[in-house]
Each structure stands twice: as C-alpha cells, then as structure tokens.
Amino acid sequence: MRMTSKKPHQLAVRRKSSINRLLIAVVVLSTVATAIHWSALSGPFIFDDAPAITDNPHITQLWPPGEVVAAPPSGPTEGRPIVSYSFAINYAISGLNPTHYRAVNIAIHVACAIALLLCVMGVLSTPGWPVALRRPRFWIGFAVALVWLAHPLTSEVVNYITQRTESLMALFVLIAFAIWVRQDRSANPLAMQLLAGVCVMLAVLCKETAVVAPLVFLLWDIANRRGDVVSLLRSRAVGYGALLCSWIIVAITLTLGSRADTVGVAHGVGRLDYLYQQASILLEYITLIVWPTNLTIDYGMARPTPFAAAIIPGAAVLLLLAGTISLCIKHPRVGWPLIAAWLLLAPTSSIVPIVSEVGTERRMYLPLACVISVVLPLMYLQFRSQLRDAAKSRKIGAALVVVLTCILAMENRHRSEDYADPLRLWKSATIATPDNPRAWLLYGVQVKNRQGPQEAIEQFEQAVHLDPAWPDAHLALGDALRELEHFEAAMHEYEAAANANPNYPPALRAVATSYNRVGRTDEAISLLRRAADVDPSHVSTREKLGILLLQAGKPNDAQPHLQYLTQQRPDSAEAWNNLASAHVLLGQKEQAIAACNRALAIDPEHRGAKLNLQRMTSEQGDRQ
C-alpha cells in the first residue's frame, strides 16, 4: 500500500523536476541567444528582405488570408505561406521596424534549440543506448542545444530576417521528430504519428527542403528497430501516410508557384555544372563546422564549371559520404544523424541548380544540429571511458561545453555585428569570396551610398573584371560614372551591359537615356521600344518612350504609352499633362481639356497643364 501511494508521488516529483530543468534551459538559451544577437537587432533590412518584406504589399494586411500569403512571384516567400503570415503579423505590430522582426527570429531560434534538446532526450530514451548516455540525457541534450545555438553557422538564419523560412521549417521538423521518437511510449501512438505528419506538412509550407523529412524519419526507424522495411511501413502506415502528404503539398506549391528565375537548368548552368560546384561548397560547409570563421552572406551565383575543377573536392566528398554510410551500416544509431545531415543538404546541394545562390550557410542550419548531436555524446562517452569516474566526467564535460560555447558565442556575436552595418557585411563577403562579382557590386553600392560614387568605382570595376558578361556590373559602374559626369565612359558601360544581354530592359533603358542625351533620339526610341516589348508593364519604360515619341513629333505613337501611364499613376499630374500634350498635337481638343483638368485637380499649380489648358481655351475663343 505504501509503495502504491509512493509511486504517484515520485512521478509528480520527477515531473516537477523535469519542468524546472526545462525552464532553466529556456532561460539560459534565451539569454545566450539575446546576448549573441543583440548588436544586430536594430540593423537594417538587407538583400532579399526587400522583396519579402519592405517591397511586399501583401504583408500590410492580415485579412483575407489568401491575399496575405500571395507573395511576389519568384520571391523568397513564394509558396511559403506560414512565413508570409508571420511577416504580416510583424508588420501589423511594428510596421517596418527591423528590430521586432529580428526579435521574433531570435525567439524562433531559441524554440528550435529547445526542440533539439527534446529530440536528443527522446532518442537517448529509446532502448539500446548505454546507461552512461541515458541517465544524463537531459544535460547531454542541453549541451547539444547550447553549442548549436551559439555556433556562428546559425547567425545568418537569425540576423538575415528573410531566412525565417529556414528557422521555421527547422522548428516544425524538430518538433515532428521529437513527437515521432516518443510514439512508442505514448498511450495513443496513432495520434502522435498524425501530429508529427501535420508538423512536417507545416514545415514544407515554410520551405520546400523539408520534403526529405519522411526519409529521415524512416531511416531513424530502421536504425532504431533493425526491422525489415516492409513490416516497419505496415506497422506505421498511417504515420508515414501523413508524412508523405507533405510531398503532395510540395508538388502543389511548386506547380502553382514559379521559381523559374532562380531554380532550374535554363540559365546556362546544367545539373552537372551545379553538382561540380557543390563538391567544393560541401567541403567548405564541413570546414565551417569545425572552424566557423570568414563567413559570408553570399557565395555568388552558380556558373558553368569544368569537370576537372571538381575532381579533388568531389573525391573528398565521396570518401566522406562513403565513410558515413559505412558507419551507419556498422553502427546505425550513431551513423543515422550524419546520414540525415547529408539528406537535409541534398535538395539544395545536388543536381537541381539554384542559380541565384550556389551556396549559403543557412543550408547548414539543421545539418549542423545533426552533426553536433552525434559528436558531443560520443565525446562524453570517450571522457567517461578514459576517466572511469562518472562525476568527474560530467564536470569535465560541462566545463568543456561552457568553454566551447563561449568561444562560439564570441565569434557569433562578432559575426552578428556585421549584420548591423551593411557596408561591413558586404566587405566581409568580398574577403570570404573574393571571386564573387555580386559581393563586389553590393559592397560598391554600400560604399557609394556612404562615401559617394568616386570611392565606389574600384568595387564596380572589380565586379566587371570578375564577370564581364554580367550586365548589372556594367550598369552599376555606368551609373557611378554618370554621377561623376563622365558621360562618355558611362555610355560605354551601358552599351557593354546591353551587349551582354540584348533583351535586358534596365540596360536598354540606360543606353537609350545616354543616346538621347547626345541627340541620338531615333536610336533611343528604338531601344525603348525593345525594352517595352520585353517588359510591357514597366511604367518607367513606357513613360520615357511616350515622352521621347512626343518630343519627336509622333503623338500618335506616344498616346498609348502615355494613356497607360495615367492608368498606372492616376494621381500623377505630370502623367495627365503629358497625355494632354499628345491630345493637343493630335487635335483632340475635348480630350486635351479633360486631361488638363485632371492634372489641375491633382496639382492646381501645375505649369504645363495651365499652359495647355490656356492654349486650348484660347483656340476655342479664336474660332468663335
């Protein structure tokens, strides 16, 4: 009787102790994360934050949901509705204050660390692990979460606001796995399976790379249960069915959306080209796990790569992969997380070219967690076997974790400071990837904004030198030269941009502006016509073309463009006045007067509209 009354009491004490330890973990992890990233909280929006947040009109409302999640085409949040809605909530609370957006990113990062702790605890709670790991599983899980949270490779996901896509995806995957590994100890395993499946579905709605999660879970079951795959699938058919629903969601989002501007083989970069580049990128990722310095926000764009350049790094990657597979066969429980890391990298680091970014550190966010969750427990076991003293092993292990965390946290804090200053951020990118023309161009943009066009010439020239066929580099250099009133040199750069891509509207517009300046009006009109054919919805192109045609005495050709301008800018007095001028030259008096009146209703002091209206009314008076 005493034993039966004592058992519930012991369970209550253990439960309370577990809750207290978890609360301590939350406080410590939150404190460390805030201390690391505090300096970057007020930093400006950067890079893809523009299409995802600052230039995204869809996040300025919370209803209707369909409008909120309708992200701009080919943008970083297209097909990722949960992330889009999180940005909309941020906007509703704080507008475009980047501090609040980053604060949410820090909170998500801490939540991921807690979920990782629960995953490690769940794995070490399963039968078959040494008692030396099972008993201190909470502290081992806490050490894994702490080291991962402080690692500099996670800094991009926190400080680069748009990369909330990565952290939210990781959070749902980690929660799903923490649930999945506990289903055998649950009173309702079927409900646990379904809940894990729902979490993975939410994960792919944050980022499509979570599509590999069902395979990761399957490999865990195989490594843990050592059963045959068919019987395993039958016993958890409902759970795997729920997990595989995520594949249907990915198929639908990719079909409805379009990432043709950034993903695919139709950009001069084939599947093998991309694969060859990934060999050296993967080695760089592995190096950064051990020595996380010289980080960069941009590895550059994918480009054609010869096979010879991939032989040595490719052989090294294949040896590492073979070693991981061998370890997984001999010691499935130990090797499984490393195989999971390879799988998580596969969607972005194999044969599907992501042309806009050949590599990014954020892709290591979850794979890094897998690696650390293997290395730290094995290190602890090694100390335990060498010292043969559990208490001493725990003390030494704890001390080493604290030292390692402090080292990583200091490096991570230093990296976070880069995100507070875009000039410093892009300068670091040119140091880490000196052969990356985009890093030099964007560094030049920051130098130009801060110090003026003369100081930015060197950076733009370096971008042109690294990629002479990249029109944006020529355009940036041309703009700087134009601001310095070196008009002939600027025209040369604009022409080079148009030659690099004859159908690139910004280049065509820039050349047309230069030609018009020197009186080559017909050539300027021809170029603007071509730009308008490529992108008929571009308002600035249509405006420039309409005005040049008007000045060239071709009001009939100009009228459609000027009419389009009033449709796109109905509150622009200048647009209505330009249309009025076309009507005047065509002898369309009533339409001209109506357009003048619209212009003057917007701006009663508009000089051009007053003159046009005076001209029309005086002509009517002369007739009478």
Question: Can you walk me through this structure?
Answer:
With 624 residues, the chain is an all-alpha fold. The protein has 2 domains: 18-418, no CATH class; 425-623, Tetratricopeptide repeat domain (Serine Threonine Protein Phosphatase 5, Tetratricopeptide repeat, Alpha Horseshoe), CATH 1.25.40. Helices cover 73% and strands 0% of the residues. The protein contains 30 helices and no strands. The protein has helices spanning 2-37, 49-54, 65-68, 81-94, 98-125, 131-134, 137-150, 155-159, 164-180, 189-204, 213-225, 229-235, 237-256, 271-290, 311-330, 332-345, 365-387, 390-419, 422-432, 437-451, 453-466, 471-483, 487-500, 505-517, 521-534, 539-551, 555-568, 573-585, 589-602, 607-623.
Note the main attributes of this structure:
624 residues; Serine Threonine Protein Phosphatase 5, Tetratricopeptide repeat; elongated; mainly alpha
Topology of helices and strands:
Layout (H helix, E strand, L loop, with lengths): L1 H36 L11 H6 L10 H4 L12 H14 L3 H28 L5 H4 L2 H14 L4 H5 L4 H17 L8 H16 L8 H13 L3 H7 L1 H20 L14 H20 L20 H20 L1 H14 L19 H23 L2 H30 L2 H11 L4 H15 L1 H14 L4 H13 L3 H14 L4 H13 L3 H14 L4 H13 L3 H14 L4 H13 L3 H14 L4 H17 L1
Helix pairs in contact: 1-5, 1-7, 1-18, 5-7, 5-9, 7-17, 7-18, 9-10, 10-13, 11-16, 14-15, 15-16, 16-17, 17-18, 19-20, 20-21, 20-22, 21-22, 22-23, 23-24, 24-25, 25-26, 26-27, 27-28, 28-29, 28-30, 29-30
